[in-house]
Amino acid sequence: MSIEKVLYTATATSTGGREGRTRSDDGVLDLQLSMPESLGGKGGHGTNPEQLFAAGYAACFVSSMELVAERQRLALPAATSVTAHVGIGPIKDHYGIQVALSVLAPGLDHDQLQKLVERAHRVCPYSNATRGNVDVSLSIAD
Predict the structure, then answer these.
(1) According to a count of CB atoms within 10 Å of the terminal CB, is the N or C end of the chain lower?
(2) Following DSSP, what letter does each residue of 73-114 receive, concatenated?
């Protein structure tokens, strides 16, 4: 599936792999990377690709929920949040990731929220990018 019209392109360059640095072309993002000890690294104060992916997916999913809610003329609580858990591990002879999204929308009816989350999952660019490639689970937090 091709994008009809590119509205924005993010550009970042990384050097040094998981123990290096990543920087956006505009300099707004400039981060030290550190490999987690559980992956054989030294740990440290840097971030890692899985944290960056989790942050991006969570933010994008909240925005997708806002879009769906607006289309349905539904007021989404201001405290609505999405927590993304991105796991990495072996699959056959290489590595893969899995994602668990946990949605919290205090005060919204559970069934209504469940339908909203399912619709947002169809709209979200990250969900569309991972569909068929990455196991993504959705849950409603209490």
Answers:
(1) N
(2) T----TT-EEEEEEEEEEETTEEEEEEEEEEE-TTS-HHHHH
For residue range 84-106, list pLDDT tens digits in order: 999 999 999 999 999 999 999 99
d(CA 60, CA 68): 12
Q: What are the distances in angstroms from CA 95 to CA 48, 71, 98, 103?
A: 15, 38, 10, 27
Note whether 140 and 110 are within 8 A (CB).
Answer: yes
At residue 19, what is the residue type? E
Give me the count of residues in the chain.
142
pTM of the model: 0.94
**H or E element at residue 32:** strand 30-32
Residue in 72, 77, 83 with CA at minimum distance from that of residue 109 = 77
